[in-house]
Amino acid sequence: MAAPGVHAGLQLFGSTRRLLHKLDKCAVFRSYTGSCALNQNATTALPAGSSEEIVLPRKKKWDKIAVLQALASTVNRDPTAAHYMFQDDPYLFPKTSAEFKLYSLSQESGRNTAKYIINTYPKYFQKDYAEPHIPCLMPEAFEPQINDISEDALNERIQLRQVKAAVDIFDQLIQGGTTVSLETTNKLLDLLCFYGDRDPVRDDQPEHKEADEVEAVQEDFQKRQKGRLRKASDLIGVVWRENNNAERIFNLMPEKNERSFCSLIRGMVKYGAYTKAFSMYADLLNNRMTADVHTFNALLAAAPNTREKYNEKWELIVETLNQMSEQKVQPNLLTFNAVLKSLRKCGSLARTQSLQTLNEMKALGIEPSLATFDHLLGIFYKAASSVRGPTDMIFEVLDEIEGKSFVARDPDDVYFFSNAMRVCLDLKDVELAYRLHQLLGEGENWKLLGDAFQQSVFYGRFFNLLCMMEHIDMVMKWYKDLIPSLYYPNSQGMMDLLQALDTDSRLDLIPQIWKDIKQLGHTNKADLVEEVLALMARDKQSPEVQASFADCSLAVKSVYEVGDRGRTALEWTASALGNITSLLLRAGRMQEAWGILQLFKANNRIPGEALLAEFLECAKERRDNDLAIDLVKLAASFSLTTTAKFASRVKEEFLLSEEQKKSLEELDVLSSDSSDSDSDSDSE
Amino acid sequence: MHQLQSHLQLRLTRKTEHKEGCERRALSWCETGYRGFQTSAACLKNRAARVRVGKGDRPVMYEEAHPPHFIAHRKGWLSQHTSNLDGEGGAAERTVEDVFVRKFIFGTFHGCLANEVVIKRRGNVLVVCAVFLQRLPPQKFYFLLGYSETLLSHFYKCPVKLEVQTLEGRVPYKYL
C-alpha cells in the first residue's frame, strides 16, 4: 500500500540522518540506502530516543542445510491452522468445539440450499461447458417422467428411491391384474428392506413431520433397547413393523427366489426383527434354497439377540457357520467380523473362541481389518475388566499392525483408534499411546479416525493420559501441537492440565492457560474457574509470578460480572472472592483488594478469618491505621467471632491516635456485648 | 437576416468559455432551430476508472484511487486468465463470466464487500478472492460461502473456490 510507504519513507529519511552521526563511531560501513536490516534497526531505535546507542546485529552464520531444514518444517501439519474446510482468517476461525460444529454445519446447509435451488430450477443449469462431461455438476431430476401405471414407471420410481410412490404403483398394478416380473419385484423388495419401508430423508428438502404412530413405536422400541448404540435402527429410529409393506408384498409374490428371501432376511436384521429373520431363514431352508454370504453375515450379527444364555448364543453361531459350510458358501472378512462382534456379547467364553476364529481367518488367507482388532480388544479388555485376568492382547495387536497402512473395509473400522486409546488409558501406558499415535501417521490411516466426535474422543483420552503420566514439558509440547487445531478440550481436559501443572509445580503457566480457557469458552464452568483461583492463591510465589497472578485474578473477576450482551455471570462464592483478594494483597495492590472486600457484603458472603488476618498484616507493614480500623469495623459488621481479637491486636500493634482508640473501644464494647450475650445465652 | 447575425454574435461570445471534456452545453429551448459550432479547441479528457477530485470528504481506496495507466506499475489485475495471450481464445467468454461472478458476489454478500473481487483461473479451477467486512456473524458467512461455491460450480461446470479475508472496515487510501 502506498500510504504507509510514504510515512515509512519519511521516517527512514529522518533516521538515516541521525544514523550518519552514529556511524562515524562504527568501523563497519554498510550502504544504508539498500540494506533493509539496517533500516529496520533504525526504525525500531527511533521510538526509544535518538540519544541511545544503536546496536547493529552481528552477521548470522547459517548452517549449510538451513534452507532445507526450513523447507522441511513446512511439510508437516501446521498446528496453528484450522481444519481445511474453514477459511484462513482470524474472524472466521472456530475457537471452541461448538463453533466448529456450527460453522461446518452452516457451510453444509449453504451447499444444500444451493442444491435445492439448482434442482428446483434446472433450466438455468443445463448449458454444458465442461469437456469431458461432468455428471455430478448437472442438476438432478427428482420427478419421475413416466406417469402411467406400468412396470417401467415402477422401475423408474425404484431408481429415484421413492419408496411410497413405488409401493402405490405396485399395488395399482396388482389390482389391475397385470403381473409384475420377478426381477422388478425383487428390486422393489430390496428397496423396501433397505429403507425400512420409509422414504429416505433427502438433504435438500425441508424436513417432514413424522407420523405419530411411528413415534409411538419408536419410544417403545427404545425402552427395550437398553442403550445399545451404533445400530442403523437406533440412529434412524425406524423399526420393522408388523405386516409392513415388505412382508405383505413378499406374501403376495406367486414365486419367490433366493434373492427375495435374502433381501427380506437382511432387512429384518437391519431393523431389529431378529427372531423373524431366523424363522424366515428356516423357511428358506425348507424351500431347499441356499442363502448367500451377505445373508449369513446378517444372521450371524443377529444371533446373540435371539438367545439369552452365553453358551446358547455361541451354539447358535456355530450352527449357522456349519450350515454355511454345508451350503458351500465362502466366508469373507465381514463374516469373521460379525462372528467376533457377536462374541463380544458372549461373556466369558469369548476369549478362547475368538482366538480360534482368528486362526480360521488366517487359514483361509483373509487379511484382518481394523474392525477385527477392535472386536478383539473389546473382548479382551472389557470395561469393568479387572476380574477377567491380565492379558497382553493390546501389545500383540500393536506389534501386528505397526507400520501397516489400512483401508476401510468394514464400517466398524472407525472405532478401533478410540477403543485402543481407551485401553491405553486404562493400562496407563504412555509408550503404547505413542505407538498408537504413530500408527495414525502411516499411509492413509488418518482416514480411519472417523468423524469429528470419534476424533475428539481419541485425542481427549490421549491428552488425559499425557497429563497423568508425562513430565510437564512434554505435556506443554503436545498441548501446543494438538490444541486447538485437532482437539477442543472440554472442562475435564482443562482440569487435567491444571492438575499436571500442579504436580510439576509449574503454576506460573496458569495465566496463559486462563487465556486459553477463556478462548475455548469454558468460563461458565464454575468448578474450573474456582480451581484456577485456588491453585493461584494456595502458595506464596516469587514477586514476578505474584504480579502476573494478580493481573490474571482481575481477568478472572470479570467472568463473575455481567458482561456485555447480557452474558450470564457466575455466582460469586466466598472462596473465589477470598482467593482474588489474597492474590491482590500479595502483589501489593491494596486499593483493589479493598474494593473486592466490599463485594463480600454486596453478595452476602462472609470472608474467612485468615483473609482478614492477612489484610491486617499488610496494613501493619504499611502502617495504615485507618485501614486497620476499617478492617475491624468490617469484621464487626459481619459479626465475626474474632473481632475482639482483631481489635486487641490493632490496639497493641498499631500506634493509634486518641479518637481512633475511642472508636475501637466502641467497637470492642459492641462486640464484647454481643459475645457476652452469647455466653449468657450459652450458660443458661 | 439581421436578427440571425446578432444571434450568431451572441452565440460566439458565449462559446469562448472553455468547457471540460467532450460535454457541450445543451442548447437551451430558446436556441432550438439554431445551428452553432465549437470554436474553442476540443479537449477530449479521459474519464475511465478515475475518481475526480471533490471537496475532500470522500474516502477513496487504493484500488479506486489509481487510474488505469497505473496497472502493472502500482496496481495488479483484477481478473487473471490466459485468454489474452497470443493464439488463445475465449477472452470474451471469460469477461462475461467475470462480470456475472462479480455481480453475483456483490449481491449474495450484500453490503459486505470491502473492495473489488479478484478472479483467478488456474487450470480448471476458478478462484474468487474477496475481502469482506465483518458485518455478518461467521456462521452466516459460512452459509453464504457454501452456497456460492456450489451454485457457481454447478453453473460454470468447473470447481469454484472462494478465498476470503475479513476486515473491520474499509481502509481509505486518500480523501478526494
UniProtKB/TrEMBL annotation, chain A:
<dbReference type="GO" id="GO:1990904">
    <property type="term" value="C:ribonucleoprotein complex"/>
</dbReference>
<dbReference type="GO" id="GO:0006417">
    <property type="term" value="P:regulation of translation"/>
</dbReference>
<dbReference type="InterPro" id="IPR037387">
    <property type="entry name" value="PTCD3"/>
</dbReference>
<comment type="similarity">
    <text>Belongs to the mitochondrion-specific ribosomal protein mS39 family.</text>
</comment>
<dbReference type="InterPro" id="IPR055063">
    <property type="entry name" value="Rib_mS39_PPR"/>
</dbReference>
<keyword id="KW-0677">Repeat</keyword>
<keyword id="KW-0810">Translation regulation</keyword>
<keyword id="KW-0699">rRNA-binding</keyword>
<keyword id="KW-0689">Ribosomal protein</keyword>
<dbReference type="GO" id="GO:0005840">
    <property type="term" value="C:ribosome"/>
</dbReference>
<protein>
    <recommendedName>
        <fullName>Small ribosomal subunit protein mS39</fullName>
    </recommendedName>
</protein>
<keyword id="KW-0496">Mitochondrion</keyword>
<dbReference type="GO" id="GO:0043024">
    <property type="term" value="F:ribosomal small subunit binding"/>
</dbReference>
<dbReference type="GO" id="GO:0019843">
    <property type="term" value="F:rRNA binding"/>
</dbReference>
<feature type="repeat" description="PPR">
    <location>
        <begin position="332"/>
        <end position="368"/>
    </location>
</feature>
<dbReference type="GO" id="GO:0005739">
    <property type="term" value="C:mitochondrion"/>
</dbReference>
<keyword id="KW-0694">RNA-binding</keyword>
<keyword id="KW-0809">Transit peptide</keyword>
<dbReference type="InterPro" id="IPR002885">
    <property type="entry name" value="PPR_rpt"/>
</dbReference>
<dbReference type="InterPro" id="IPR011990">
    <property type="entry name" value="TPR-like_helical_dom_sf"/>
</dbReference>
<keyword id="KW-0687">Ribonucleoprotein</keyword>
<dbReference type="Pfam" id="PF22330">
    <property type="entry name" value="Rib_mS39_PPR"/>
</dbReference>
UniProtKB/TrEMBL annotation, chain B:
<dbReference type="GO" id="GO:0005840">
    <property type="term" value="C:ribosome"/>
</dbReference>
<comment type="similarity">
    <text>Belongs to the universal ribosomal protein uS3 family.</text>
</comment>
<dbReference type="GO" id="GO:0005739">
    <property type="term" value="C:mitochondrion"/>
</dbReference>
<keyword id="KW-0687">Ribonucleoprotein</keyword>
<keyword id="KW-0809">Transit peptide</keyword>
<protein>
    <submittedName>
        <fullName>28S ribosomal protein S24, mitochondrial</fullName>
    </submittedName>
</protein>
<dbReference type="Pfam" id="PF14955">
    <property type="entry name" value="MRP-S24"/>
</dbReference>
<dbReference type="InterPro" id="IPR026146">
    <property type="entry name" value="Ribosomal_uS3m"/>
</dbReference>
<dbReference type="GO" id="GO:1990904">
    <property type="term" value="C:ribonucleoprotein complex"/>
</dbReference>
<dbReference type="GO" id="GO:0006412">
    <property type="term" value="P:translation"/>
</dbReference>
<keyword id="KW-0496">Mitochondrion</keyword>
<keyword id="KW-0689">Ribosomal protein</keyword>
